[in-house]
From TrEMBL:
It is an enzyme of class 6 (ligase). The keyword Transferase does not apply. The gene is purS. Pathway: Purine metabolism; IMP biosynthesis via de novo pathway; 5-amino-1-(5-phospho-D-ribosyl)imidazole from N(2)-formyl-N(1)-(5-phospho-D-ribosyl)glycinamide: step 1/2. One of its GO terms (molecular function) is phosphoribosylformylglycinamidine synthase activity. This is Phosphoribosylformylglycinamidine synthase subunit PurS. Part of the FGAM synthase complex composed of 1 PurL, 1 PurQ and 2 PurS subunits. GO terms for cellular component: cytoplasm. Keywords: ATP-binding, Cytoplasm, Ligase, Nucleotide-binding, Purine biosynthesis.
Length: 84
């Protein structure tokens, strides 16, 4: 079994209004050193081993459901889980 950590973020060229609102709020709270915030999504998937390559499976899942490839980028980490 694999544990996959997926991180989805807006592309740098895409405006992030939620991140801008958080940046403004932090500046209003006197955290002037914060100059930018980008908001994203984090997901953990548990995937059974199969004949298919785990990277092919995760890329398909991200492209079809978890990320919008037009405006979002994603990256992931795969950990092999030890079952007892």
């Amino acid at each position: 079994m694999y544990k996959v950590k997926v991180y989805v973020t807006l592309r740098e060229s895409v405006l992030d209004p939620q991140g801008k609102a958080v940046t403004n709020s932090l500046n209003a709270l006197n955290y002037q050193e914060v100059t930018d915030v980008r908001i994203g999504k984090y997901m953990e998937l548990k995937i059974e081993k199969s004949e298919r390559d785990i990277h092919d499976v995760v890329n398909e899942i991200c492209h079809k459901l978890l990320a919008n490839p037009v405006i979002e980028d994603y990256r992931y980490e795969v950990e092999e889980c030890v079952t007892q």
